[in-house]
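Students often ask why we bother predicting the structure of a whole assembly rather than each chain alone. The short answer is interfaces. A chain on its own may look different once its partners are present, and contacts between molecules only exist in the joint model. In this exercise we take two input lines together and write out one structure for the complete complex. Read the inputs first and try to guess which parts will touch.
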Amino acid sequence: MSLGLYISVPFCRTKCTYCNFRSDVFSRAVFERYVERVAADINRGGKTAEQMGGVLEFSADSIFVGGGTPTILDINQLERLFVTISQKFAVERGAEITVECAPGTMSPAMIEALQRCGVNRVSLGVQSFVDIEAASVGRLHQRATVVEDIAHLRAAGIENINTDLIAGLPHQTAESWDFSIAEVVATGVPHVSVYMLEVDDDSRLGRELTAGGTRYHAHFVPDDELTADFYETACERLESAGVCQYEISNFARPGQESRHNLKYWTRLPYLGFGIDAHSMLPCAAKRGEAVRFSSPDLLEEYVAGAPPKKIPVSTQAALEETFFLGLRLNHGVDLEKVSAEFGESATESHSGTISECVEAGLLERDGDVIRLTPRGRLLSNEVFERFLTAERIG
Amino acid sequence: MDAAFLRNFAIIAHIDHGKSTLADRLLELTGALTAREMQAQVLDSMDLERERGITIKAHAVRMMYTAQDGHIYQLNLIDTPGHVDFSYEVSRSLASCEGALLVVDASQGVEAQTLANAYLAINNRLEIIPVINKIDLPSADVERTKEMIEGAVGLDASDAVLISAKTGHGVPDVLEAIVKRVPPPKGNPDNRLQALIFDSWFDPYRGVIVLTRVFEGTIRKGQKIRLMWNGRVLEVETLGVLTPKPVEVDELRAGEVGFLMANSKTVADTKIGDTITDEAQPAIEPLPGFEEIKPMVFAGLYTVDAHEHTQLREALEKLRLNDSSFFFEPESSVALGFGFRCGFLGLLHMEIIQERLEREFNLELITTAPGVRYKITKTDGELIEVDNPSRWPNPSEIAKVEEPVILATILTNEEYVGGILKLVEDKRGKQKTFEYVSSSRVMLHYELPLNEIVLDFYDRLKSVSRGYASLDYHLADYWESPMVKLDILVAGEPVDALSIIVHRDFAYERGKALVSKMRELIPRQMFEVAIQASIGAKIIARETVSAIRKNVIAKCYGGDISRKRKLLEKQKEGKRRMKRIGRVDIPQEAFLAVLKVGEDS
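Now the answer. The structure tokens for the assembled complex follow.
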């Protein structure tokens, strides 16, 4: 099975207030050491996979360089990462190769470099086309920058572009959200991700929303009702513009769904490099058994060479993943296939949960396929939770 | 030892006024323990006691002291619980003494509990030696403290012993004062045996251990004894004294204090206040003062995890081995499942039992709102007692409700009187007395319904007085009052565990406050949830928890599935810890809110 490869670049020019990832602002002096370490990691990929007990094939059909802001690296550093990959893995012809970019960080030289590296897809962290919204969370770009960047990418032949939008940003209103959606449709990009602001203690804005305060504009964050409305609006508008929802937060013109992201939801193998990079590889055994492992999420630890953390996925856990990941996709989960992989009784064991959710209007059933209803999508955690029965992973 | 050289004494003090520190000093000075041997505050040996700085169980320690007159005296320090909930135990401990040290913090002055215990000591005709502690503090005011002792307790404080238990200053004078001022015990070792049980507890390895004071006669090892109230006959297997290490002796003679073990397996047999006598030659009469202690405060105890019900029962049984004053019986609640209705001596007692269950037995508990026992006369003339809201009769069957009323003594500083008066008036209190015990210290006596005390009175008293008020009370009376049962309905279903009994005039306010608190605490569900308060069929308040619209993890960074899974597990675990009533998940805090809601009203 072809691999998806992921490289994390945790560096940013500024830290956005909603960001709950390990990305941060570091001195450029760190970049070189980091790239060095990632390259070593890539070279050691086969060994790591073996130590973790996963089955690894050395051919890849997707590469995703995410962040942070990968384009903050020097061009030669970025190139070094791609060269190392191509030395170690057979990158298939037609592989999807994505780099996440912050608008305004793509000099002509950078775009050229990306192309040299084989990059054929760019994901732009736009978040909002309304300048005051973007500025209020610490984004450094303006709407005009985004439009220019898209034009430059296209001119260079990179048509496969994703733009990220966040529903629930401070200052967002129904009107401003409509504006962002209209803008994204107007750009004609074939892929859009719509996220909803996550409120947790891992981001400054999230903490402020919980604890109260005004420094990060938490008092201008629309409430849950409104954010849910925004999300629904986005689903409708994008759909009618031909950018159809295929996953809870992903929308694409038919055929332009992200191959790399689909691997996450369909439990296809992927291997990650860099800090807090996650991997999933099947085990030699039967029935969905797999191993997940992740590298340290602290830069010093990672650079110092701390080993990855391993989480085995039992058959039972794999079955649960099949549901709670697969149901994220609009095409849903085919129970026939679940039975084929895990056995008839495995599907049976969840039949009570399924009919309960169907009755509650959270799931719909179409022959052997179950999928979330639009209401179920907004309440998907309530649905997914019910599919968990396995021992806790801690 | 000749009884002339015996002294039995107790220490009466408010929390933090230095009782335990003083006791430690006395042990050190008499050589009972060297400083190095001594773990700080030897007497409070239960973890809970040390943490809270209170004494729950009584102790008795024998010290040998060579006085300035050259004689060696045997001093028995009988340590007593200091809290109002345990006033019966205190009274029995005090009854075992001829004298008491009244320890008062020189910067804080006399507090209500000190006062109550001092009165108990006076009633037991004890010689009381005022001891003013913490005189080394900059804020110490010895003269004012003396004034207060004279004004509030009515004792001559001119010869009070001035000490700092912390530095040891003046502590030798305390020992001399005990020898000189506390009378030796009376009683004849040859008379028929009369010994008072002033404490007993269950030790899993040795069975029941009884602390006793011999008034008449002599207890000997191997003797067959009879418990005069209880009727049981036991054989004395072990006899000893605490130094504080246990040391076995062959006999305890009139005037002496010690412990005994007599193959008993339950403290219910050896009740505090019972009289031990000789089986063959019994005393004519038991010693006075025995009472069956009755619980005053009642609440339901449930485990968060229904599977732990059996463990809860076992834990309660074990605790009861050690504490015959608390009572429990099975009850079941629609909302909370199977649990136990428990009766406690008071709120502190309840808290202690709860904490011990949680700590020593690792149980997670939900406690329903504490209540009191009402006397209800039904329309058909039947008289019943009800301490559980779920047994409250239909309003149409009630002719008359009588509620227990306490007489509260509150001591405070002048500046807080206004706030306190408002509080006690709000709590339906009736003033009995109002007097200045010193130029700035006020003593209030109020009659208050116990029902109002158990809810949140302590906390509110503390807050209106910034901690500068102390409270003591005892059951005094019953009032006829229009009490009603207030029910809380969630999504139309009454949640029995949230029902409370309130005065009719407070029902509306309380109901409103409760439903609004519930609205904050009940998380949004996938459908709209109505929360209502009702009296009988009449809805008096309503709030709505609107349906949840979104609960979704939109982003999934770099294939981190484990994080997602953990979030889902956490969510599931959160729900598991809630109680499901009908279709609605109710968090534990909602059940606790009933206890707190008075604060908002």
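Check your guess against this: Chain A has a mean pLDDT of 93.
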